[in-house]
Design a protein that fits this description.
124 residues, mainly alpha, Cytochrome Bc1 Complex, Chain D, domain 2, 48% helix, 0% strand, elongated, binds heme C
């Protein structure tokens, strides 16, 4: 195989892996949720714990879970929790919602984050 061919197949492999990671694996994401989020968040509709219920979170506006006492920062962030916003937020919550009372440092692993968001997207 020529060096150029080798480079091209490596690039194709990376691109394929990249899109698979972006799509995310909800089953793997559920495990991430159980270990990293479930201590503060329920996935049952209307069940608020330390944090608001995350049922239906994908597509909803910041600070809109009924009966949950949000910080002013989260309440007034005026964002929609779509995949891209969740991706940034879960990498570094304080970077996206400065002043949030969510004391979670962030999930830096891209694959785990994509899996987690794929799982959140099933909660509806
Ligand atoms: C230590 C407790 C804690 C952990 C762990 C935690 N959260 Fe939170 N989360 C909160 C609190 C408290 C809020 C409300 C923040 C506010 O009002 O400022 C929140 C808010 C949120 C919001 C905004 C919801 C809305 O309705 O606007 C999302 C999304 C979220 N958390 C997702 C997650 C995910 C996903 C994880 C796991 C990676 C996680 N959180 C881990 C406590 C936590």
């Amino acid at each position: 195989m020529s060096k150029r061919m080798l480079m091209m197949s490596v690039a194709a492999g990376v691109a394929m892996y990249g899109s698979a990671a972006m799509a995310g694996d909800p089953a793997a994401g559920r495990a991430v949720f159980m270990s990293s989020c479930s201590i503060c968040h329920s996935v049952q509709a209307g069940q608020n714990k330390i944090g608001p219920s995350l049922f239906g979170v994908v597509g909803r506006k910041t600070g809109s879970e009924p009966g949950y006492n949000y910080s002013p920062a989260n309440k007034q962030a005026n964002l929609t929790w779509d995949n891209a916003t969740l991706d940034k937020y879960l990498t570094s919550p304080r970077a996206v919602v400065p002043g949030t009372k969510m004391t979670y440092g962030g999930l830096k692993d891209d694959t785990k984050r994509a899996n987690l968001i794929a799982y959140l997207d099933t909660l509806k």
